[in-house]
Specification:
Distance between the termini: 24 Å
Number of helices: 7
Subunit structure: Homodimer.
Helix content: 25-40%
Structural class: alpha/beta
Strand content: 15-25%
GO molecular function: ATP binding; metal ion binding; pantothenate kinase activity
Radius of gyration: 20 Å
Pathway: Cofactor biosynthesis; coenzyme A biosynthesis; CoA from (R)-pantothenate: step 1/5
Order of helices and strands: EEEHEHEHEEEHHEHEH
Strand order of the largest sheet: 3-2-1-4-5
Number of strands: 10
Oligomer: single chain
Pfam family, one: Pan_kinase
Mean pLDDT: 89
Subcellular location: Cytoplasm
Low-confidence stretches: 264-272
């Protein structure tokens, strides 16, 4: 079995794949100071709850956009699963070209989305990921990663609006019944929701014009279904794109060699 760990700015998602299907997915708030033992107590209880034996996990793969969280996630794999994790980074064998100026600067999540979306849906396409940031990633017909767009995430925009305007409350995200809000909260909800729909439609239109041809548009992330309701631009939503990318990357690359000397060695460098 494979343990896939997707560490984002807001949540860390753990998932187990048995070679045929995902057997479980769990998430915990991202905290850079969370220790490997804390992760283990939580994760082992969840594995037991669904009838999975930790000894069945023979491979681990980590994708993270939070460098400070990597050390303890790597220790989790070493100390509790006797496995050296594969770390999603640009120099690995992705099976496609990374056609940007600085490949090492591209977030692992964006490359993972490109890998899984092209494998499952073909190309060319745009992947919109509704996370802490809202990202638009462009994948060519041959699977090559061409770059994309990074915009502030919806929750960031809501929090900024609340903090910057003393009389505006913190609101939840939802599709408003009308565009014209007749009180403060509906007006804010309309601005956030339809504002992001406009952002999605506008950026996708400009990407297609610059690309010079049709592009499929795939949405992922927890808010993808909500925004897909408000626009015809998003053709398909898939919540598992990033996890699928981790699985595919682990299948494409040999597992790193695990050295038992790495167990519980606090002096071992994270770059080892």
């Amino acid at each position: 079995m494979l343990l896939a760990i997707d560490a984002g700015n807001t949540n860390v998602v753990f998932a187990v794949h048995d070679g045929k299907e995902w057997r479980g997915r769990w998430r915990i708030a991202t905290r850079a100071d969370r220790t490997s033992d804390e992760y283990a107590v939580w994760l082992l209880a969840l594995l037991q709850h669904v009838g999975l034996n930790p000894n069945q996990i023979l491979r681990c793969v980590i994708g993270t956009v939070v460098p400070a969280a990597l050390y303890n996630l790597r220790r989790l794999c070493r100390d509790w699963f006797d496995t050296e994790p594969l770390i999603a980074r640009a120099p690995l064998n992705w099976g496609f070209d990374i056609r940007v100026d600085q490949p090492n600067e591209v977030g692992a999540d964006r490359l993972l989305n490109a890998l899984a979306s092209h494998t499952h849906y073909g190309g060319p396409l745009v992947v919109i990921d509704f996370g802490t940031a809202t990202t638009f990633d462009v994948v060519d017909s041959d699977g090559a990663y061409l770059g994309g767009v990074i915009a502030p995430g919806i929750n960031l925009s809501i929090e900024a609006l609340h903090r910057a305007a003393a009389r505006l409350p913190r609101i939840g995200i939802g599709r408003p019944q009308a565009v014209i809000g007749r009180s403060t909260v509906p007006a804010m909800q309309s601005g956030i929701y339809w504002g992001y729909v406009g952002l999605i439609e506008g950026i996708v239109a400009r990407i297609k014009a610059e690309y010079g041809g049709p592009l499929k548009v795939i949405g992922t992330g927890g808010l993808a279904p909500l925004f897909a309701e408000g626009t015809l631009v998003i053709e398909k939503t898939d919540p598992d794109i990033t996890l699928e990318g981790l699985r595919l990357l682990a299948d494409r690359n040999p597992p790193p060699v695990f050295h038992h000397s790495a167990l519980r060695d606090p002096l071992r460098s994270d770059s080892d």
